[in-house]
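Internal ticket #5521
Category: modeling
Description: The requester needs a full-assembly model to guide mutagenesis choices. All entity lines are attached below as received. Residue total reported by intake: 348.
Assigned to: D.W.
Attached entities:
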Amino acid sequence: MVDKNMFASDNYSGICPSAWQALEEANRGFGRAYGDDEWTRRACDALRDFFETDCQVFFVFNGTAGNSLALASLCRSYHSIICHELAHVETDECGASEFFSNGTKVLLVPGSDGKVDLDAVRHTVERRTDIHYPKPKALSLTQATEVGTLYSPDEMATIGGLAKGLGLKLHVDGARFANALASLKVAPADISWRAGVDVLTFGGTKNGMPVGEAVVFFNRALAEEFDFRCKQAGQLASKMRFLAAPWAGMLETGVLLENAEHANAMARLLAQLLTEVDGISLVHPVEASAVFVQLPEPLITALHDAGWHFYTFIGSGHARFMCSWQTAEEDVRHFSAEVKKIASLQKI
Ligand SMILES: *Cc1c(COP(=O)(O)O)cnc(C)c1O
């Protein structure tokens, strides 16, 4: 039985076996509270190995907290954060970055395929330097982007150089950072600290964990008192080991990247099958786990009527189909066949 919710979002997926097993192991007996436990130590060490650097790591419950607390630690209240106009930070976090930084303004830049236009970033910083303008202090990128595209290692290095030259700290919203890594097949360091990223919000939830994101500070000085910030925001888990254990388990086994690669492969297949249907075209290149397509309006209605759940307002406002670690190839084929059938009936 196909679950017709399966393409709506990657956070519709369940907990993957590897995360589940780590939780089960972490559930044996007692553990110290508030992160002073073996699982949290193991998970932090696994992330340091993964990034090949002595980064400082914190676990929070969700991406909104990770992004907004990380950004708040880069800025003072009179500063501003530059991000893409489609960024989750701007469109889907209910003003959390402004709230947790006590008023830091978010300034938007355009850019094709969900990626910031570098001239626009430069212009936003340089157009005003007077005391009346909220001084730009941070640049926040999303990798993979809200529309399922990627910044290449070269693009990341260029952006890192630009940010440094403009005096901006560099944050990455990596809700789907694992999908980016799996697709680019580069060392995690190459699209993070080696490219000048100061802090990364590394997503676990959408990649097979039950809950929890890692905030990874490559610039350790910026992590000063971040633990207090987390506590005040209600983001310090007392049973931290249950946020940390899936990270330890999935990193130590390599499942973290395998899950992401599976999701990406399913998205590539879905894109290929959907675009074989007359009248369906891709809106953005499929580089990670999202497929954005232009669908004829009657086809959207018919699919919704048939019970398929998917969004048409996310990102650039086209139909979005998300794949996850749990998406099965036969389900991709089943759904694509149904789309094809409905489309051909509508043509008559
Ligand atoms: C899902 C997502 C987040 C995190 O959202 P939460 O619901 O707060 O966990 C952050 N950024 C992007 C791009 C996302 O897709």
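Resolution: model delivered.
Comment from assignee: The first strand starts at residue 56 and ends at 60.
Ticket closed.
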